[in-house]
Design a protein that fits this description.
16 helices; alpha/beta; about 50% helix; 2 domains
């Protein structure tokens, strides 16, 4: 079954305006968002200062230290040296230190700053929607010493018992109310519903499926239909096993299949045939590719003629979120590629990559400026 280009365009164009409207924050929401973000950024600075002080780097105005001495004292394992450098950058832009060659000069004492507890109380009073996020931020930075020394990995910090529930609960209100993640999910769900209503059969591949955050939302819509096959893939064996078990318990295994798939490698070497799928879906995963251009090329080859690659990616993360996701080594592994913090790309960078890949149609949501910077970009690429 071949998806016609005009049909996809006829689906997307009419809903674009309503999608943009749902992403916009009203004046009250924008004010709350800016206030909460500002307080969390202030909290991250306070917690970083606390981290340095607890590691006996409670230097006073006029003191100085060599970078090599500081790194030797903190002893971060690779790649968390980049993380320490980012902390120093944060102190520098807030005028606590000056960096010159190999020296760090302290312009202000690290002992004179609002305590984390006082900022968290302020968040509870004026920005309660951000309170749980403040507690997650506090929890992550509390574990930095053990993480940097290699005594602890990011998994027990962010994913106790191997589940995303811990992170999701703490970021749920912000994701829904301000980042509007459900608006993006609903657009993808509506497309899948439209496809299964209008075409006799749909073959779907999801790559980097992880904990199935988007997977099970889609399956809930598709489960009463018998004209689709959903191929759930990830590089993690335990994630595949858990998803397979979930599908069996919910009587979904007849319409799903599961396999390990590394999108950094040639799919044919992994027994996944070219021209095999109507839709390929990737949620917050492709930014981790070793070479994004190669991965996009691999995925395009897996699509049938007229097939659609759907990419939903985080962008424009607030400063404080880097101190949460930064506990993962991958966050710092591609710092040179993006010329920024972490592995995430901008909307324009995604567009450039996909334009080079020569898809016949490319739809970008949103493709215009909102009152605030969007925190996700959704891309529909048709072969």
């Amino acid at each position: 079954m071949i998806l016609k280009q005009d049909n996809l365009e006829n689906f997307i164009v009419p809903i674009y305006r309503s999608f943009i409207t749902k992403l916009e924050l009203d004046e009250y929401g924008l004010e709350n968002f800016n206030k909460g973000n500002s307080l969390l950024n202030k909290l991250s600075l306070s917690l970083i200062i606390n981290y340095f002080v607890k590691n006996e780097l409670n230097l006073l105005t006029g003191d100085k230290i060599k970078k090599s001495e500081l790194f030797e004292k903190l002893s971060p394992v690779n790649p968390f040296q980049h993380f320490i450098s980012h902390m120093l950058y944060l102190l520098e832009v807030n005028s606590y230190i000056s960096l010159a060659d190999e020296m760090i000069y302290f312009n202000k004492s690290l002992l004179h700053f609002k305590t984390p507890d006082s900022i968290i109380r302020e968040i509870a009073d004026v920005s309660p929607d951000f309170l749980r996020a403040s507690k997650l931020l506090n929890h992550c930075i509390y574990n930095y010493t053990e993480l940097f020394l290699g005594r602890l990995t990011h998994t027990p910090i962010l994913f106790p018992n191997g589940h995303t529930n811990f992170v999701n609960i703490h970021l749920e209100k912000i994701n829904e109310k301000f980042f509007k993640i459900d608006t993006y999910f609903k657009l993808i769900i509506n497309l899948f519903s439209w496809l299964t209503n209008n075409y006799p059969s749909i073959d779907i591949l999801e790559v980097g499926s992880g904990q199935g955050i988007l997977t099970w939302k889609l399956i809930d819509v598709l489960r009463n239909r018998n004209n689709y096959l959903y191929h759930f893939t990830d590089i993690g064996r335990s994630l595949i096993s858990r998803a397979k078990k979930h599908a069996m318990l919910n009587n979904l295994d007849g319409s799903m299949k599961f396999s390990i798939f590394d999108f950094n490698l040639d799919p044919e070497l992994q027994n996944i045939a070219s021209n095999n799928y109507n839709v390929i879906l990737a949620f917050d995963s492709i930014h981790n590719a070793f070479n994004i251009n190669d991965t996009i090329c691999y995925l395009k080859n897996l699509l049938k003629p007229g097939g659609i690659l759907i990419i939903l990616e985080s962008i424009n993360l607030p400063q404080w979120l880097h101190f949460i996701w930064g506990v993962t080594p991958e966050w710092w592994s591609k710092i040179d590629r993006t010329q920024g913090i972490g592995p995430l790309l901008s909307i324009r960078q995604w567009e450039k990559i996909l334009e080079k890949s020569a898809f016949s149609k490319l739809f970008v949501f949103p493709d215009k400026n909102l009152q605030h910077d969007p925190n996700f970009v959704l891309l529909f690429c048709q072969k």
